[in-house]
Amino acid sequence: MLSNTLNLSKLPSVYLLEKDKLPNDAAIYFVSDSQGQVLYVGRTVNLVKRWREHHRFNQLKRLNRKTRISISWLTCSNDINTLSNLENEFINSYKPPLNWSKVVSPVRRITPVEIALQQSLQQLAKFNTMIFGFDPIADEEPPTLYLLYPVYGQRGLSGSIRSLLKKINKKVSALKWKEYHTEPKSFGKFGYWKTEYNGIRIDLTPVQGLVHFMDDAVRRTVAGVELMAFSREQLETLLANVPEEEISGLGALEDDPIPIEFVTQSQ
Q1: What is the pLDDT of residues 58-91, one digit of tens each?
Q2: What are the record keywords, sorted (predicted)?
Q3: Is 147 helix (H, G, I), strand (E, B) or coil?
Q4: Among 35, 91, 220, 222, whose CB has the most other CB atoms within 10 angstroms?
Q5: pTM for the complete prediction?
């Protein structure tokens, strides 16, 4: 994939307020802040014409007062299918936060993906979320960290979890949680969630009886945030009768799979 090899710092670029210097080429363009974070990705058959009346310009101009915004571009064929496919590839790769925000929304703060992840995990820890294990083997699926949250019969924390993650999703951030499955209302309407950070998937699942494992839990960190975790002995006991092909490389978490520095920032 082109997105895996492209070095944005090597692309031609201009500052936002110098957009009239853009060429009239067909291109994929990248809007970045002074730290190099990609804020927006788009496509066009004529770059300078596109930016004369770009729907994001006023929004970006306000943001430019806080961090210098630049536009870089990758010259491409003007074939609309080629442009569309490349745009989707780069959006999926960089997950630019403004591609998911409303144009009318003033950008007061862009939350770095690391901070949005840490805020998510901090709140999940308050709901007694536990680390079940980590599967580092990247076959057809990415390396996956499995988190569990407690439910009690048809009662549980699913509504609170849902509110929390939807609140995180409202932030102008590249981190987004997806509810990929919801139990029927008769079973409690519990939600199953997932997100990805830096190639690692985080899967969050509701589990009955999780409270019985908490007394013997150990403490482990994910992205610098401490959570309860299944010990190696607990996990080995639970998986003892599970066929090996169903386990893959799943094991108890020992080291932080996302070793980033913890940053304190208001919610």
Answers
A1: 889 988 988 899 999 999 999 999 999 999 999 9
A2: Endonuclease, Hydrolase, Nuclease
A3: strand
A4: 222
A5: 0.70
